[in-house]
Amino acid sequence: MSLIKFFQKEVPEAGCDEAGRGPLAGPVFAAALILDPKKRIAGLDDSKKLSESSRNSLRLEIEEKALAWAVASLDNVEIDKYNILKSSFMAMHKALNQLKVEPGLLLIDGNRFLPYKKIPHRCEIKGDGKFQAIAAASILAKTYRDDYMDKIHQEFPMYGWDQNKGYPTKAHREAIKIHGPCKYHRLSFRLLDDQLHLF
User: How many independent structural domains does the chain possess?
Assistant: First the structure.
C-alpha cells in the first residue's frame, strides 16, 4: 500500500515522529518536516521496515527535497527529569521550532501529543505507515539517533550500542550488570531484570 502524500493541501503540513522511546541509554530524537508538493520521494515507508542502507539514502533525498526539515533531541538526563513521553513531545517541539516554514497543520505519529503553539494537530496511530511526511520524519529521527549511538559507542564499546542502539537486549543488560550504568544510561528506566542488584 502506497503512503498518502498529504492529509490536506490548504495549508503546509508538518509530519512529526520520534525515535528512541524504548532504549535504556541515549537520547530520544524527533524530526519534523514539510514535504514539497512538486517533488516526489520514491520508496518512503516506516523506518522500521527499511534496511539501514535504504534509510541512509532516503535521508539524503529527504533533506534535499523537503521544503523544510529539522531534527532535535533530549538527552538521558532530561528524560530522567521529565519522563520519556513528555521528553518525546518536547523533542518534537524543539524540531518544530527549527522549521524555516511554519506549518498550518501537524501530523503526529502516535495517539497523544502536547499542543504546539496554536497549530492544529492530528494524531495518527502507526502514522509512519500511512503518511509520507510522518514516514520521512521517522527516517530522519531514526538515522540521526543511530549515528549518535554509533558515536558514543566509541566511548563505551562494552555496551554494544553500535548493534543494539541502546535498546534492552540481553547482551546490553548483561554489560550493565558487569560494568554498571554509564553517564548515557537512563537511570529512571529498569536497566536490569533485577533492579535491586544494580547499585
Answer: 1
